[in-house]
Amino acid sequence: MINQLLQNPDFTGSAPGEALRTQPLGFVDVGARGGVHHVVERLAGVTSVLAFEPDQEECLRLTKEMAANSPWANYSIEPIALAGETGTAPLYVLKSAVNSSLRAPNPDFIKRYGLTGFEISKVVSVPTTTLDVLFFGPGRPAGQQGEFIKLDTQSTESEILRGAERTLDERTVALLVEVEFYEIYQGQPLFSEVELQLRQRGFSFYGFDLRTRSAKMLEKRKSAGRERIFYADAIFFKDPLPGGLWKKPMSRRAWNVLFACALLLEHYDFALQLALETWARDEEAVRLRRLVQQEASRLAVRAFDDVMALAERVRTNPETANVEVGKFVDARRHLADYDDVKA
């Protein structure tokens, strides 16, 4: 998937493609343990990554890894925690490092759902700052960082957004935010609060990649039922089209980046509507329509092979049929929106 979009001449020959070759996409990855989020891999060569991870050892590891072999136009990582204000804060380092947070875990829900890796190993003090201070503080150069923001900080996403109001207003066109639906961490804001916070900043909620949990009282190979939504990656766009929440003028750069982000997040219908109902005319309209159709069909053509592989797994191991079908649905759930298909 690395640079897959850059290998498509319809993208490189388009206005969005030219804009990103001239000035790379400013991607901010907050909570970068494990590496840059895969969502921007298809445009890696024209993406400038600014990552944040409060674990200094992980920062050093990622810095060395990127120095040896980086696909990105630019890459840097800061060993600090983003928050709603500058200062210091306790970092709860948990048994599973990916669960570490500036908030303490909630023992009630952890026990109820049998969650593992949430035991506190230690508590350390870490420096904090805000995106607005980093991007607009004294002596800071102008730039494009923050056009696309990914947040995965185990419960502090709302505070980071509070410290990024100018960034959201002046630079950001798309966000991918991890949100929770019950308090995995003590006192954390939940999805409804994060959605309202972003809605008030002019961002429209577009969809989820959902994860669920249960108390595992039933054997999944022999039962089926609904589970509680645990957390999700939520997608938000500045939507300047009729009915959208964004009412301020947008620069041509912002239009181009918004189109590119819609492609990366696989909201292809929105991407095509952005182009054809605004700037794309004549040859550009033909090019972008063809591009979006190619990208969308890339996902559709996998369906046959995926179904046949599923059928073979079920035929070979019929006792796991319910689990195999469930995993198949989980993997494709975000692509399974067919309520509006014409009869």
Indicate the radius of gyration in whole angstroms. Answer: 21 Å
Fourth CATH level, the homologous superfamily? Vaccinia Virus protein VP39
Helix percentage: 25-40%
Q: Order of SSEs, N→C?
A: HHEEHEEEHEHEHHEHEEHHHHH
CATH-defined architecture: 3-Layer(aba) Sandwich
Q: What structural category arises from helix and sheet content?
A: alpha/beta
**Total DSSP helices:** 13
* Structural domain count: 1
Distance between the termini: 34 Å
**Low-confidence runs:** none
The CATH class is Alpha Beta
- From the 3D structure, determine the CATH topology: Rossmann fold
Number of strands: 10
- Strand order, biggest sheet? 3-2-1-7-8-10-9
Q: How much is the average pLDDT?
A: 93
Description:
- This protein is of the alpha/beta class and 343 residues long.
- It has a single domain (5-281), classed as Rossmann fold (3-Layer(aba) Sandwich), CATH 3.40.50.150.
- It has 13 helices and 10 strands.
- It has helices at residues 9-12, 15-22, 56-68, 107-112, 131-136, 157-162, 165-170, 191-200, 252-264, 268-276, 282-300, 302-316, 321-332; strands at residues 25-30, 47-52, 74-78, 81-82, 87-94, 120-129, 148-151, 174-180, 203-213, 228-238.
- The radius of gyration is 21 Å and the shape is globular.
- The two termini are 34 Å apart.
- The model has no long low-confidence stretch (mean pLDDT 93).
